[in-house]
Amino acid sequence: MISRIDLRGAAFPEGGIDRDLLPRAELDVEAALEKVRPICDDVRHRGTAALIDYAHRFDGVTMERVRVPVAALESALAGIDPAVRAALEESIRRARLVHRDQRRTDHTTQVVPGGTVTERWVPVERVGLYVPGGRSVYPSSVVMNVVPAQEAGVGSMAVASPPQAEFGGLPHPTILAACALLGVDEVYAAGGAQAVAMFAYGTEECRPVAMVTGPGNIWVAAAKRLLKGRIGIDAEAGPTEIAILADATADPVHVAADLISQAEHDPLAASVLVTDSEELAAAVEKELEVQVGAAKHIEDRIRPALSGRQSGIVLVDGLEQGLAVVDAYAAEHLEVQTEDAAAVAARVRNAGAVFVGAFAPVSLGDYAAGSNHVLPTGGCACHSSGLSVQSFLRGIHVVDYSREALAEIAGHVVTLAEAEDLPAHGAAVKARFDWKVPPSK
Question: 99, 265, 297, 333: which one is catalytic?
Answer without folding.
Answer: 333
